[in-house]
Amino acid sequence: MSKYGVAIRGIGVSIPEHIVWNDDLTGLVETSDEWITSRTGFKARRVVSGDQLVTDLAIESAKNALAYAGMQGEDIDLIIVASSTPDYIYPAACGVVQQGIGALKAFGFDMMMGCSGLIYALSTAVQFIENGTAKNALVIGADTHSRYTDWYDRNTCVLFGDGAGAFIISRHEKAGETDVLAVDFMLDGARGQEIKLPVNRDNCPLTTPRQNIEKSAIYMNGREVFKFAVGEVPRLMAETVKKAGLTPQEIDYYVLHQANARIMTAMAERMDIREEQMIVNLEHYGNTSAASIPLALYDALMSGQIKTGNTLVLCGFGAGLAVSTAVMKWNCVDHRTDAAPATLQTKSLEVV
Length: 352
Ligand code: UT7
Prior knowledge:
With 352 residues, this protein is of the alpha/beta class. It folds into two domains: 6-178, Thiolase/Chalcone synthase (Peroxisomal Thiolase, Chain A, domain 1), CATH 3.40.47; 181-330, Thiolase/Chalcone synthase (Peroxisomal Thiolase, Chain A, domain 1, 3-Layer(aba) Sandwich), CATH 3.40.47.10. It is 32% helix and 22% strand. The chain contains eleven helices and 13 strands. The protein has helices at residues 22-25, 33-40, 54-69, 93-101, 117-130, 154-157, 222-243, 261-271, 282-285, 292-302, 344-351; strands at 6-14, 19-21, 44-46, 78-82, 107-111, 136-144, 162-171, 180-187, 195-196, 219-220, 253-256, 311-318, 322-329. The strands form four sheets. It has a five-stranded mixed β-sheet, sandwiched between helices. Helix 3 (54-69) crosses helix 4 and helix 7 (222-243) packs across helix 8 (261-271). The chain is globular. It starts with 5 loop residues before the first strand and ends with a helix. Bound molecules: oxa(dethia)-CoA. Oxa(dethia)-CoA (UT7) binds at residues 31, 35-36, 39-40, 115, 154-155, 158, 195, 222-223, 225-226, 229, 259-260, 263, 287, 318.
């Protein structure tokens, strides 16, 4: 039995300015706008430039989430950053965020679970709140896969984009109430090699000829991961809805990791979900890994598609191979006093 319930208090996002369109990639690899659009749904992706860091995006998303929640950095006592594309292996990104937002009393850690990282981080923060260890937690999903992509591999370079998204969750003010109704996970390490970002283990010049030094870049067996996602994700989502004590009819929207439009269509068919219940914004950002769920949710909130009181299923899937789901009530109040910012989608469409 949990000591406390959890309230979702804020959401914030951050994307780099620089846009890479599908056509920009045809100069690098043998591909086409038609192939990328029809196979993935992606039209554009944002990528960091110059010395912009994943923690810069993380900090901006955190500040935006604090503004949404009407809170200050000093209110935060736990920071979890989900990222598989760190600026540094150490120090951990949570410490950089701590300094960036002035959450000087907060403790924290990073989590490396690929595209399911954000929900793993969120559900970990939920437990810290439920058992009383933390009162206000900041959970960030931030990735800059552009830094780890082989831009001459057409199998991967057309897929990923950079971005960050943050949630703030707090101890619920009303005893016995909670916005996070259920969480669940699955992990199949036997299929772990289907997406990988290897660390260079043969880096000793005394033992390894220069030409044999392994390159560190993303590898993905797209077809296998596709099959995994369409097979496992609907099953786990259905189980998590049941665990929350709900029926599928009581779910308003599904906010899934934005990996591929065809994956979403296949899942919707399998689960008998109406097209408009599936939140899709991937055409603007590509696959932003741990950031994709808050980016999609934020866009749907700003466009008015998702409203206060809606019941949501959030689901991340990918490297591991792993899946993570959460069922939640969206009761979060936007405390920002300035005119509501344009949706991110509108922002990118303006450039078209
Ligand atoms: O975020 C983590 C979770 N990720 C996912 O869930 C991603 C899951 N997988 C996918 O989304 C899809 O498998 C991809 C979008 C990655 C690939 O689509 P696909 O329909 O599975 O294509 P494929 O890998 O089976 O490749 C089909 C063909 C191949 O050519 P051949 O062997 O048939 O001659 C590829 O070489 O398409 C070729 N190809 C391309 N052609 C043009 C692969 N990439 C490209 C490209 N442009 N960029």
